[in-house]
Fold:
Amino acid sequence: MSQITNPHDAFFKQFLSKPEIAADFLTQHLPGELLALIDLPTLAEQKESFVDEALRSHFGDLLYQVQTKGGKPLYLYLLFEHKSYPDDDVAFQVLRYKVRIWEKEIGKAKRLTPIIALVVYHGEVKWTVPKNFAGLFAWEKDEQGIEVVLRHYLPEFAYHLVDLSALSDAEIQGGVWLRVFELLLKHIFDPTLGQQLYAILALTVELAQQQSGMEMLVTMLRYVARAGPGASKNEIHQTVMQLFAKEGGVLMKTAAQEWMEEAEAIGLQKGEAIGLEKGEAIGLEKGEAIGLEKGEAIGVEKGMLQAQRQMILN
Structure:
């Protein structure tokens, strides 16, 4: 997978690269006839991006291969629209990426693998772009039915749109991690995000105490700090302290306080490490900066699991 630099892209891929969350997402959003066709336990991510380097600030993508219940291969291609408004040419981009996927198959198989494209959108402007490729063409109908004739000579396909911005919070369903993932995507451009952060992250309190929970939590906080202009440093600080600084919680009060004081809005490039050198506050030996360009989720590989266990035991 290519290097991730866009915060929306990073958040999208870090969550939907997890098979259980990807399966939950597809269960919630695939049309019923497609969901009935595929065998979800066979879902496997393909580690490659097909988006042009110049367009990665606007689009992110994930490709999965899955088997149908009859044992035939099928691709599920997720194209994530990062922008706060829809792209008029998204169907053209989908066609380009489908062709690139098929180009890798030419000469390797007798038949190409079908590709189902899902476009994921979370922008502020209503989606009005046609969801079929033929909608990109302009022609005038006449008595000879030229539109019908031309359809035989033009590519025709549709993509399935997952428009998170059009869903109410109550309509966002699934497991806890999927719901929080989609709620943050939906509200990331909202100027009142900081006021809603407590209600969104409150869903994660129990799960965050599990071994993988801390990493997921930090991924979410990093995303809010980097990409959510509606959430101030103070609002993030208050949310973390209220939810996770209680005795017996994931973060002890002193750890959370040190984190918020030194990390500077959780994810800014100048954020300091939690307990640098001394390994304090979550017990890391060599804590890296939360959100630094080379930083990993609270503690970077070394000592993270051990630190989580120590906190929970304490």
